[in-house]
Amino acid sequence: MARTALREARLKAEDLTGRQKAAVLLMALGPEASKPITQALTPEEVEEITLEIARLETVPPDVVEAVLDEWRRMEEAAHSLAQGGVEYAKQILEQTFGPQRAAVILKRIESQLRESAGFRVLRNVDPQQLTTLLRNEHPQTISLILAHLEPGLVADVLKQLDPKLGALVLYRMARMDKVMPDVLQAVERSLGSDATVNLAQDMTRAGGPAAVAAVLNHVAGSLEKDLLEGIARQDPELCEEIKSLMFVFEDIVRLDDRALQRVLQSVDARELALALKAASDEVKSRIRSVMSQRAATALQEEMELLGPVRLRDVEEAQATIVKTIRALEESGEIVIGGAADEVIL
């Protein structure tokens, strides 16, 4: 009875979670060869993977080979992406995993590459301190630096900037593509010793409409509106392209039943009730459609108990839920797409 489900049934590579695959990889490599990998992980991650190793005990050879092959493919894709070959990396991943899963993995690899790229110290700086550091810089300099930081941190900085300046920074970020490392080195020197640039590539990818869309997904509705209007004044077509890449709270209606149910499992009931206070009838109806009658009634009662609420609080709750949806998408647990999207089973 104490055996895990993994040992009760025939183990298959496609059924493994990310942590289980990492465990199989470390088991296959052995203690010495695994050391560089475990040293790059956090203590929490090492503990989680070690627990999976203990649970797995033995793994069939075909499963080990499948995991190693997947790892080799991802390493090859990461290498080609680091050299600027995004399309080549995409082809490799699509051939191995199919278009949907390839898109999720490619996004994760790009994120990992950014972690090894410039301005490492700034990634851990308090947003208020970072804003103070950047406030008097030229918008192009600000956009170049923010393009190399995580969307959530960039959003926190934008909240403290004048919306007009923020819109100009995002516009320049959206127009950005590749940046020469010597340009980043020059920016580093202008900032003093507070930033660290460490780039090996000839050019580093940064910015673009997708990066701006990711930032705006972390921003509350009123500021998001101001920033998009500012970008539209500079370039209406670019603004529309950014909007098409964004996922906003009202886009919940685009999620299929399974994805929406998974989202609701990860969202606090009170926060959901708060977020729905200013939502459209379509969104409310869509959410209730995947709930039991009892849960839908409880949600309605929670909304009524809240009484009058500030619009700012509602927008923050909606932004938090959007962030949860994005996190679930990036982990591969759900797929965001409209009715016209092709789904491969």
Mean pLDDT: 75
- Main CATH class of the largest domain: Mainly Alpha
Number of domains: 3
Determine the fraction of residues in helical runs and give it as a percent range: 55-70%
Give me the CATH superfamily of the largest domain: Flagellar motor switch protein FliG, alpha-alpha superhelical domain
The major β-sheet equals: 2 strands, antiparallel
> Would you report the number of β strands?
2
Instruction: Write down the overall geometry.
Output: globular
Could you tell me the radius of gyration in angstroms?
A: 22 Å
Count of individual helical segments: 19
Report the β-strand fraction as a percent range. Answer: under 5%
Order of helices and strands: HHHHHHHHHHEHEHHHHHHHH
Unreliable segments (pLDDT under 50, ≥5 consecutive)?
Answer: 1-9, 179-183, 193-204, 338-345
CATH topology-level name of the largest domain? Annexin V, domain 1
For the record, the CATH architecture of the largest domain stands as Orthogonal Bundle
